[in-house]
Amino acid sequence: MVGPLIILSGMTLALGFFEAPLETFLIGNAGIGIQAEGAGLWLISVSMALVIFGGFLAWFEFGRKGSQQVGFVERIPALRALFSERWYLDHFFGWFVKNVVYRIFADLSAQNDRRVIDGCIDGFSRLVVRSGRALSTLQSGRVRYNLMVTFAVLAPVALYFLFA
Amino acid sequence: MVPMDMAFAKFPFLSAILLSCVAGLLVILFIPEERKGLIKGISAIFSGIALVLSVIIFFAYDKSLGGLQFVEKLPWVASPCISYFNGAGGFNLPLILLTGIVHFTGVLTMWELETRVKEYFALYFLLVTGVFGFFMSLDLFFTFFWYDVSLLPMYPLIAIWGTTQKEYASMKLFLYLLAGSALVLPAIIYLFAKSGLNTFDLVALMEPGTFTPFQQKFAFIFLYLGFGILAGIWPFHTWSPTGHVAAPTSVSMLHAGVLMKLGAFGILRVAISLCPEGWQYWSGLMAVLATIGIVYGVLVGLTQKDLKYVIGYSSVSHMGIVGLGLSTVTAEGLNGAIFQMFAHGIMTALLFSSVGYIYERTHTKMIPELGGLSRVMPVASGYFILGALAGIGIPGFANFWAELAVFISAIEVYPIGGIFAICALVLSALFMLRVVQQTFYGPKNASIKHHLPDISFGQGLPRMMLAGVLLLFGFFPSLMFEVIQTFTIPFMEGLPR
């Protein structure tokens, strides 16, 4: 296990020292210096401070004499749970899919499909059927109904031609 | 718009494809009902001829020449000018090939049919004749004629050989599609009358300046909604999943695989080609409806328990991708939309074909009643999983390239719609993987028998073909893109801006 770590850290150090020729090899002269100009001193300072703090923390927790060999993450239950549950991302994903995607959006869309979209079409179909049935009562074959329908159609037409 | 170059056919390939279907239909009608094996054999031979001819014209199309090729024109009525006018180009070759593949594999998939075999295959051939005719016709009259020919057999095919709620589904499907037809017909008559050319010739009607911008905007919306009903655009899609569920396997394959493409192709061939300014004017509305369709199809699909309903709603979502591609008014969007029509057709045919086999053996399509099926039927499960992976848009399948082309152009033209559509793709992965996990993995459902037979080599042949086509165009997408681009690039260059 130590062998690969030594190789990797050695390569990291070497690449750090040969950054400029490596960058030229990868992106040519065009990209040189752009990153450094944009980065600013504060970013370098913060990065270095974080690295030094990390090194100090590692020494304090595990390296110094009499240390408990237990990291602070292990000692604080809330932090321990946060990391062991992988930042609760799986829980959040499960909750989101179940309660938001399924219960809200998917169920609502399915209800809309069945009750609103299909409901309108089915309702319209029922209306057509019922109107047809209602109109079919006029088709009883009796002369008086036929005359009544003829009058109901012709009267407005006649009125239109007389007064329009 | 640039007038299309035309190369007349030395051999009438397109008519030969149509004739293979008509001849198949006639031969089947003359075979006695009880000779079921012969009917199936004849169906396989004639559908095989149609497939071979479709493959030949797809690969024989001269991409360097472009334009319309294999053109056949025969005047029929002098006034108004109606011709039997067929041609092939980048806009319809993928769909002719798609129909050839789904037609042949559909016949093989129904090899075990025992109920009213003669009537079934006769109606099936009539349906396919209409579909082929619609894709290759360049005369508006014949376009509408073939469109109706392809719709009519759907009613008896579902009502007689269907399953779940078959009477309701067939009636609903038929009424919806007739309503679409009722919107298309007045628009066609309007365009014919306003052109003043006294012809139904699509190429002549496509000439620039034939219609005013107002006429194009007015006719486009009728044509878009009319054909859009068949393409399953939201909110006119509900006939489609119900129809898929009720239809017998090969009809489901044709229904989702090819018939829905008729609608999208109608929008492209009639609405967009004749009314390009109407297309540009209404493209925003098209994008909104398509995006809603993509997201909505996935969301409703998530709640479904019936395998066929799941595929039905995924089709609504995938057809939304076609609509989104068409709405971008870009060559890339059109490329993606046409490719997606082809890829979705093959993928959905594979899924329905696999579900058909599972249903025949287990007598259920309900996801909670299945589970652990891959332990009993690993090959049948494998075909479904392949189709599901293609549906998710995994690289290596044809669908990936089609969806990629549509989303790239959609993000450029409609960033918000594009983002919504891409988010829906993530959900569609959830939706398909849920089905795969619950149906094929996990503990085996107690109701599933141990000794259910898996797909044999012969039964697997149509599924192998479909999976092979998805992989072929997934690894060599340029085979398809190069053909499609012979239409889209000149078409977009000639578009009035």
Short structural description:
Chain A has 164 residues and is mainly α. Chain A is built from 7 helices and no strands.
What report would you give on this structure?
The complex is a heterodimer of chains A (164) and B (497). The radius of gyration of chain A is 41 Å and the shape is elongated. Helices cover 83% and strands 0% of the residues of chain A. With 164 residues, chain A is mainly α. The termini of chain A are far apart. Chain A has three domains: 31 residues; 44 residues, no CATH class; 52 residues, no CATH class. The mean pLDDT of chain A is 84. Chain A is built from seven helices and no strands. Chain B has 497 residues and is mostly helical. Chain B has one domain. Helix content of chain B is 73%, strand content 4%. In chain B, strand 2 and strand 3 form a beta hairpin. In chain B, helix 4 packs antiparallel against helix 5 and helix 14 runs antiparallel to helix 19. The longest helix of chain B has 32 residues. The model of chain B has no long low-confidence stretch (mean pLDDT 89). At the A-B interface, helix 6 of A face helix 12 of B.
First-residue to last-residue Cα separation of chain A: 102 Å
What's the number of structural domains of chain A? 3
Radius of gyration of chain A: 41 Å
Number of beta-strand segments of chain A: 0
- Helix-strand makeup class of chain B: mainly alpha
Average predicted confidence as pLDDT of chain A: 84
Largest sheet of chain B: 3 strands, mixed
Quaternary structure type: heterodimer
β-strand number of chain B: 3
Q: Please state the overall shape of chain A, judged from the principal axes of the Cα atoms.
A: elongated
User: How many helical elements of chain A?
Assistant: 7
Percentage of residues in helical conformation of chain A: over 70%
